[in-house]
Amino acid sequence: MSEPTRAKRMNVESFNLDHRAVRAPYVRVADTKTLPGGDTLIKYDVRFCQPNSEHLEMPTVHSIEHLTAELMRNHTDRLVDFSPMGCQTGFYAITLGLEPAAFMDILAATFADLLEATEVPAANEEQCGWGANHTLQGAQEAVRAFLSKRDEWTEVMA
Predict the structure, then answer these.
(1) Helix (H) / strand (E) containing 69
(2) With helix as H, strand as E and coil as C, how does 77-95 read?
(3) Digit-coded pLDDT (tens) for 68-122
(4) What is the largest CA-CA distance in the chain?
(5) Distance from the first to the final alpha carbon of the chain
(6) CA-to-CA separations, 41 to 81, 94, 132, in angstroms, rounded
(7) Is omega for the bond preceding 84 within 30 degrees of 0, making it cis?
(8) Interacting residues of 14 by C-beta distance below 8 A, sequence separation 6+
């Protein structure tokens, strides 16, 4: 595979990240934006899998998304969005000013709740566009592995 040529900085922050130089799992601040009213949005890269080496299966991604989007809001009113990465290696969390230490504590508490879940919320045809595409077991296995590396979450670069 040839080396990419980067003549200029790209608009998408993650496209400027050398995915070969990171070591998953990790949690990093991917971007911050100060809104006109003074509020700050902080976007987190919550990376479960090593880029270009492994990925989560779509039912697992889908279920982690549903569970986390629902359960994290029990711990904070500062979650704006929790969405999967198209590469299936992790998620983006957009928060209203949640600093990294607070976000990681909330993420850990949310994932502890996820491990206790008995069903994936809104995993049905009425509330979801692909309600049959879920796996609680897969989500729990992936989250258990991610939580087991909690002490490494801040170590982004290999």
Answers:
(1) helix 58-71
(2) CCEEEEEECCCCCEEEEEE
(3) 999 999 999 999 999 999 999 999 999 999 999 999 999 999 999 999 999 999 9
(4) 49
(5) 20
(6) 11, 7, 33
(7) no
(8) 30, 45
Closest CA to 138 of 48, 74, 50: 48
Q: Which residue has the tokens 């909690």?
A: 150
Determine if the pTM surpasses 0.85: yes
In the block, tokens 């230490």 appear at 101
Burial 80-107 (b: 16+ CB within 10 A, else e): eebebbeeebbbbbbbeebeeeebbebb
Alpha-carbon torsion 77, 55, 101, 157, what sign?
negative
Tokens of 102: 């607070």
